[in-house]
Amino acid sequence: xxxxxxxxxxxxxxxxxxxxxxxxxxxxxxxxxxxxxxxxxxxxxxxxxxxxxxxxxxxxxxxxxxxxxxxxxxxxxxxxxxxxxxxxxxxxxxxxxxxxxxxxxxxxxxxxxxxxxxxxxxxxxxxxxxxxxxxxxxxxxxxxxxxxxxxxxxxxxxxxxxxxxxxxxxxxxxxxxxxxxxxxxxxxxxxxxxxxxxxxxxxxxxxxxxxxxxxxxxxxxxxxxxxxxxxxxxxxxxxxxxxxxxxxxxxxxxxxxxxxx
Length: 261
What we know:
Blueprint: H1 2-37, E1 43-47, H2 58-69, H3 83-91, E2 96-103, E3 109-115, E4 118-124, E5 129-133, E6 138-140, E7 151-154, H4 170-183, H5 186-191, E8 192-197, E9 203-207, E10 213-217, H6 222-236, E11 245-249, E12 257-260
Parallel strand pairs: 1-3, 4-7, 7-8, 10-11
Antiparallel strand pairs: 2-3, 4-5, 5-6, 8-9, 9-10, 11-12
């Protein structure tokens, strides 16, 4: 008898749990349906401009609503706005890395936009100019905003890039790896003003200070090459006039080769 009571008790608990779950789903579905029938009261646009990136403004976001819906969202029922399509259209913008849209229970529509972060600006020998972002993708230059980052010039072929990413181009991929290495350290970021790519695909750095350039070759053993460069700055330039040097070559392991004017 006790065993039957225990079984009955378990069955009752299970039925109550299932009933509660079904009830919650029904109520949640009703709440969502009611929320979607509410007219949009206000559009809140959140941009990450506090990061110092100003490629996109609120007007750019609002233009997407006009393009897809013929008008701004305020006053329109939330259910008439396809948030997934709006997100996809925003992310089609070459300066936007990610867009998230959602409506709250008050009927306010929120748009959160994360912009792409440029790593290097490229200006090749043919005058073609674009950015490489921190994820390794090409970005067009903008008339609205110019990012203060190192500039790479010289023999750079942008046509080798596939699907917007630089990995398929040896030179651009090497530039990307070098750019990440420079950006990862405050001293290196402050030091490097320009990177020149010669016809062999080797790199020459133009520092912010001095009249010399730094030959580093390809983007391999960057840790070792910049350690040798630091030795030059700490142990050589502290004792002599830096203006006498034309180039500092750190391409070769355990060697620092300086050429005077």
